[in-house]
# Entry
Amino acid sequence: MKIVRIILQLLVLYGFLLIGEAIQALLQLPMPGSIIGFLLLFSALLLKIYPLEWIDAGATFLLSFLSLYFIPATVGVVDYGPLFSGKGVLLLPIVIISTLITMAAAGFASQYIANRSAAAQKEES
Amino acid sequence: MAFTPAAIVFSVLTVATYVIANFVYLRFRKTPLNPVITATVALVAILILFDIPYETYMEGGDWVAAFLGPAVVALAVPLYKHRELLQKNLVPIAAGIVAGVIAGLVSGTLFTRWLGFTEELILTVLPKSLTTPVAMQVASTIGGIPSLAAVFVMVAGFTGILLGPYLLHLLNIDSPIGRGIGLGASAHGLGTAKAFEYGPEDASMSSVAMTLAAVLGALLSPLAAWLLL
# Structure
């Protein structure tokens, strides 16, 4: 029964979320409970405490509609129309330029380090 | 979340619009027809046309948005599946993510501050390169506006798709790791879709980068807000 398995695994994901939110509230951490839940699940998988087969179908199912879940939020832009008719429109070039800086830094750093360690390995061999 | 008639109508309407938007996208496969954009435009048009307040819409919208939290948790599964790739390239991946996340947080904060935007808007721009569910939750945690944050995340994503290839070419970033980490760390899921066009290794790198950047970004955003504001 694939459907039952998916539903049970969705409940497990929800359980990880609730634990993450409880930890967040308890320790007053300045990060979303969902990220704490993510870290818990990832650690549980890595440490083989929780097997992949018990979460795979549910997670894959949930993530295949990921963009659906944030549509209600993006619709919220309806309340911010006036912002973009004024000075707020400048936020768009800011986001665009900052995104390009992010991409350049991430891409350049990873490629540079990868090439350097590849060259070092070549010298050794 | 109340179980009202509006809740039923607007959650069904959201899902239906999304299904249609996806269908249109799969039929024509054009970037501007991204289902998030078309579904958002359609729903905004419906709200304006029928004079429905966003608050009323959200009685149903909240039911759909409730899946965001579990979906963030679920991101652990694809990351775990890529653990060998991650292990094998741990240092260059980590270097790229750290450099990208810091560059994004610092440049976003400084530009918005120089132009004199309010603190609330600075905190809204801050998480723009994180995947949407994380960005929205980070925005609400640090005092930004989640729905506007989602809009900026989309702008960042489209920047990655449309301008990213030129930038990567210009900077001679031409390896799967450089392209994948660059696209994933700056343009999240949309960047990862673009990385697929370069090849499966680019796509895996980008998917790993998207998740790691989201986690690191969630950890560093409050710090960046505290340091730079």
Notes: The first helix of chain A runs from residue 2 to 27.
